[in-house]
Structures are given as structure tokens and as C-alpha cells.
Amino acid sequence: MAISEHLFQSLLNKEVYKSGQVLFFAADTVILNINAYISSIPIVLSGSIRVIRTDDEGNEILLYYIKPGESCIMSFLAGIHNDTSKIKAIVEEDVEVLLIPVHKANEWIKEFPEWTDFIFSLYQKRFEELLEVVNALAFQKLDARLLHLLGQKSTLFNSKEISITHLQLAEELGVSREAVSRVLKQMENEKLIILSRNKITLL
Q1: pTM higher than 0.85, yes or no?
Q2: Residue 163: is its pLDDT beyond 50?
């Protein structure tokens, strides 16, 4: 759930821009690593961030995207409990973020009902997205997971043409590149996509 205009007017314009800091990060920048302590909570103003989980061997799986008007509930929870990050956040497309100090984000829960509503709505949204990830891993075949991921990226970039490699898709899905290439070729034969060098077009 994106931050509402009412929240921007009643809280952000008065408090957030007084306490926060606006920064720009280029695509592929790692802005949060696993096991890092969190001092600020990001609200995305433009662009997008992908949030992933990695294992000890470096294998990754995509959890969700943070889009404009949204934040990372996992960063918020870890920050207010003085815990380390359990996720890795990477800039998907050039992003402008508003960084809010953790102590301020925590204080506003008691002071501003709008902020509390935003946090709980965000928590519900992320919980539902994580359930989708679990369901996909447990019940969906790779072709359905791959098509869903391509659909997400198409929506993010507002384009049917997606610039991405087979390896990048494999890493986000937590599978081998060979498996992704095989399924993509099958999808192309079924007239679902068109494959070209480092680019996939959804039909």
C-alpha cells in the first residue's frame, strides 16, 4: 500500500523532511546487506528496490519489490529492535529514497495514527507477498514462477521489453541458469515471449 496523500500532507511535510535525508542510488547498488545493523528506514520516492534472501553459499531468492510510496517492513522491524538485517536490498532501477532515522520512525508510531496505519498496511502487504513466494516454491512449476517474475518486472519498468540475463533471472528465483534457459526456450516456442540477447519481450 503506497503512502497516501493525506500521510504526506499531515506527517511527511512536517516531520519526515525535517528528520530524514533524501539520497539517490544507481541501479544494482546494494543499499542493505544481510547482518548489517539498521540506522534508518527507507521510503522509496522514485524507482524501485528488490529485496532478496541469500543462504551461506550465496544462493538468492526474490522476496518482494519496494516501489514508490513504500518502505521495507523488515528493515523497520530489525531497526526498532536493534537487530541485524535478515535481507539484502538491491536497487532494481535508479532510485530516490527518503531515509528516516530508526528512532524517529519508532517515535511516530505513538505520535501519528497515519504512520501507524501505514506500517500495519505495509506489514500486511509484505506478509501476503511472502506467502506468495512460499506458495510458488511449494506448489508452482518453474514456468509459472518465471512468467510471474517477468510480469512483475514488466509492471515495474512499464514495458513489455525487459533487459535481463538468464543468470539474473535464475539468481532471483533461486534455481540454475540452465533450468531457466530451458524453460524460457519452451515459453518462446509457446509464443509467450520473444528471446533476444539480454532481453525478453512479453507477448
Answers
A1: no
A2: yes
